[in-house]
Amino acid sequence: MRTRQIGNVAVSAIGLGAMPMSVLGHMPDEAQSIRTVHAALDAGITLIDTADAYTPSHREVGHNERLIAKALASWSGDTDGVLVATKGGHTRVPGGGWDVNGRPDYLREACDRSLKALGVDVIGLYQHHRPDPAVPYAETIGALKELVAAGKIRMAGISNADPAQIREAAEILGPDLVSVQNQYSPHFRSSEPEIDVCAELNLAFLPWSPLGGMGSARQLGSAHAAFGEVADERGVSPQQVCLAWMLARSPNVVPIPGSSNPDTILDSLKALELELTAEELARLG
What we know:
By secondary structure, the protein is of the alpha/beta class. It has one domain (3-215, 253-261): Alpha-Beta Barrel (TIM Barrel). 42% of the residues lie in helices and 16% in strands. It is built from twelve helices and eleven strands. The chain has helices at 30-42, 63-74, 104-118, 137-149, 163-173, 192-201, 214-218, 220-223, 225-234, 238-249, 262-269, 278-284, and strands at 3-6, 9-12, 16-17, 47-49, 83-88, 90-93, 97-100, 123-128, 153-159, 177-181, 204-205. The strands form three sheets. Strands 3-4-5-8-9-10-11 form a seven-stranded parallel β-sheet, with helices on one face. Strand 10 (177-181), helix 6 (192-201) and strand 11 (204-205) form a beta-alpha-beta unit. It is globular and about 55 Å long.
């Protein structure tokens, strides 16, 4: 299994995004979700991304974290080398909507809740989920620094951040900041500047929805013709081409495709065996 670095931890070059197991309108049952996590672990995945807000409703905060904890506890292998990354600061509201809360006291509360949901004493990678325009960014990031100092999290990350916010977080957190998680896919390429800043600062860049989301993932080859053409020529899926394209973009990129069944995550992992040529990469843009 190819690896990449998040801080001083080597992880599989492709991780598992667990959001579809808890947020989609038609969620898989718990048994299928656990089979998906087990299949990923069996195949060598050592990075699982979750969040306290990945939940069917505002009444079940931490749903996905508890699911991941249950899957890890029931897996037959050794989980010591598995990095679970979770996030706080993005909240769920009645009616299925989303909101943000970047107050330091809330982030500390959210971290404590995630520790309990995951059943751990320390979180390997804790990420601020989304900036809150009502709270100075430095105050929110300062709370992450406090959580590191308190021994509640080993490494800190940020999500949905622009280049200026990445640099501000790096100034506050220093080496404790190890990752940035932003949206990036063939359809959504506006995070190119953030990838470059991460490469400059030696931070991992974790693209969320790298295949464009569940519906878009199924239509990737038709919506983005070049990906479908290369896939047909190489005898692989457009999703594998997409992930191989991302891995070629920068050694700091660690895609985390979402999955709710074993077949899709195992297909995604085949991208690690796909080396695209310079001509193919030029066609993909």
